[in-house]
Amino acid sequence: MATRSMSPSNLVIVGALSLLVGTACEKPLIGPAPRLEANPAEITFASAGESGGETVLFLKNAGSADLVITGLAWSGTSGVEAKWVGRAAPSGDDPLVLEPGIPYNLPISYRVVAEQDPTGTFTVYSNDPGPIKADDLHRRIGELDVPALSLPNNPAVQIFTADRNGETIGDARLIAGDRIDFGEVPANQSRYARVTIKNDGVRPLVIQSVSVVASEPATAFSISGTAPAANSRVVPSRSAATGGALNEITFDVKYLSPSTARASGKLVIVSNDPVRPTHTIILVGGAITCNLVATPSPLDFGAVVRGQNAERTVTLENQGAANCTIDSIGMQPGQSADLTIVPNSTFINGAAQPASFNLAPAGRATFKVRYDSRDDTADVGHVIVKHREPQRDLDIRVVGTPINNAPPVCVCPASPIDTAPLQTIQLDGSRSNDPEGRTPLTCQWTSLSRPNGSTEPIGNANTARASFFVDLAGDYKFQLLCKDNYNAECAPCTVDVHAVPTDDLHIQLVWDTPTVDVDLHLLRAGATTTWFGADDCYFGNRTPQWFTPSSADNPRLDIDDTDGYGPENINVQRPAASPANQPYKIGIHYYSDDGIGATRATVRVYCFGTLAAEKGPVFLQKTNKWWDFGSIAWPGCQLTVNDPPPITDRSPSNPLFP
After folding, report:
1. What 8-state DSSP symbol labels residue 218?
2. What residues contact residue 334 under an 8 Å CB cut-off, 6+ apart?
3. Higher pLDDT residue, 610 or 10?
4. Does the structure show a pLDDT above 70 at 75?
5. Which end of the chain is less enclosed by CB atoms within 10 A, N or C?
6. 569, pLDDT greater than 50
7. Residues 260, 217 contacting (CB under 8 angstroms)
8. Residue pLDDT, tens place only, 359-387
9. What average pLDDT does range 131-140 have in this prediction?
10. Which residue, 307, 316, 443, is CA-closest to 368?
11. Rounded mean pLDDT of 473-498?
């Protein structure tokens, strides 16, 4: 029989079960018929007092045809009020129909209102034809009577809990299956719950024993002070205490927070309560502790090439609510010597930590583990982090796997590469390979040497196939280095690049400051005008027609660099001969310092592809400084370089300028 109480303070007493039906000779019916069964055959009410209670009568159609229930009636003394709940009572107009084999739960609400032992009967009306009794031919067909009685004069346990300051812990009124939750308590500190037992029944309550059982850990829960004496008597709450009996029993349950996250146990009260002779209350409590978590854990170095080493960083995070006192971080003794803690590698927020330190809640610390791959055997070890709260070690499993690995082979393009300035060349190392077929390779091109003033970056330098814009005439050396996916490096290869001007005369200007603008000028041999005029090859006259239009004698300025560094180049394929004592002149003008100030310029002169003269770096202090580099007579590339370099101002008072 399943029952449920409407009030946690009530006692439900289950009596003997017997269905009141006749036992005389019976004559079975012919053909399919419904048959009503009731369980229990006898209903027992509890002493619910004014709050009332509820029980359940289980009905079932045990026949072979539909059972039609058309009514329910309660008849009894005034000591008990009872009724069918959950739906309207069935009637002839609104019957309850149960198919064969179908059960139905009939909730019954009741209230015991008298101290005597009242009785009564529930009568269920249905189409059950019932057995024909030889001794009762006047039995009403289709009626089933279920007797009910009440036994109010019994004790009932009533329990209240609160902490010792009067604040409630858990529910103020508890029944079997409920619990006391002590909440989060700092490790190794205590909290108490006060438990009060009262008698909500009529007869005296005898508390046979009170104990804490199944405590995990064993010291987490206990009865503080003196436990209630065996066979203590508690008179009903409505009565006066006499003859040494008590109105209530009060005691404290102690929770000692362990060095673990949670604790559990049971408080068991054994009494003469006939419904609940063993009353169990679940006890739970938490601990405010350090909760140290390592990431990654386990730590797997993966495959490391034999003869090489690797380091990994481990992060310790305190996910608890109390400080973690870390005493040491070390490898477990007796394990592989190839796995070690990197000395002096423990840090918190960038600050080095000693061997023992505190880690605050939400704090993080890091340290490094090193794996030296020395042989062909996999290495397994354990990092042990010793800390105090809780008193257990943090164990981080560490694994390293050695492998044999041949380095890749780097293959550079044929060297040297001959080109001209301002051309783009290909640095093709795509023939680089790995003997064991481990791909892709990670490759990097770098510049080992280049002419002073060359600033052009290598295009796609982090791939096997790179490119380079040759910004200056001169010699370059580039290196290729490739790695496989285990970081094994090839023996680097190199390629030389010779950038040789193709014109008979090549004049180059570079400087060492970004964003500023420096200009290169070439004044025609035998010029009739001055600088910045028709006889000057410069940014304002980049391809002057000094001789036959488009002839090889005319100069050209290939780049007007206005954002720093240069180069600016003036080229003449086949310079015309210069008149006697009237050579070509070379000048450098600091057009704009862009607010930066001084820069240093360098000029190189190539004749027939060979460096004939280089001067610099020459200090130019600010905007409008002019450097008179020198002159060149042709044919023969007869150079005159002014030394020391004369620096003047470009101004209206200077006859060199208009």
Report:
1. T
2. none
3. 610
4. yes
5. C
6. yes
7. yes
8. 999 999 999 999 999 888 889 999 999 98
9. 40
10. 316
11. 92
Among residues 656, 637, 636, the alpha carbon closest in space to that of 647 is found at 656
Cβ neighbours of 85 (radius 10 Å): 12
Is residue 625 a contact partner of residue 647, using CB atoms and an 8 Å limit?
Answer: yes
Q: Residue 501 pairs with which residues in a beta bridge?
A: none
Cα(560)–Cα(539) distance, integer angstroms = 6
What tokens does 277 get?
Answer: 């002779």
Q: Is the dihedral of CA 171, 173, 177, 179 positive or negative?
A: positive
Q: Six-digit token pair at 106?
A: 């009939």
pLDDT value of position 26: 40
The residues, any chain, with a CB within 8 Å of residue 293's CB and separated by 6 or more, are 316, 317, 318, 319
Q: Which of 83-87, 561-565, 585-589 has the lowest mean pLDDT?
A: 83-87
Strand partners, 613: 605
Question: Where are any strands of DSSP class E within 470-567?
Answer: 474-483, 493-499, 505-511, 517-523, 536-537, 555-557
Q: For residue 49, give the DSSP letter.
A: G
**What is the C-alpha separation between 645 and 224, in angstroms, rounded?**
101
Integer Cα distance of 467 and 464 in angstroms: 10
Within 516-583, strands assigned E span: 517-523, 536-537, 555-557, 568-572
- For residue 89, which amino acid is it? A
Which has the minimum average pLDDT: 233-247, 490-504, 555-569? 233-247
Cα–Cα distance measured from residue 206 to residue 561, given in angstroms and rounded to the nearest whole number? 106
For the segment 71-84, the average pLDDT, to the nearest whole number, is: 73
User: How many CB atoms are closer than 10 A to CB 189?
Assistant: 11
User: Where on the phi/psi map is residue 91: left (φ > 0), alpha (ψ -120 to 50), or beta?
Assistant: beta
Distance of CA 72 to the CA centre of its chain: 62
**DSSP conformation class of 246:** B
Rounded distance between C-alpha atoms, residue 198 and residue 186, angstroms: 32
Beta bridge partners of 384: 330, 395
| Residue 599 near residue 627, CB atoms below 8 Å | no
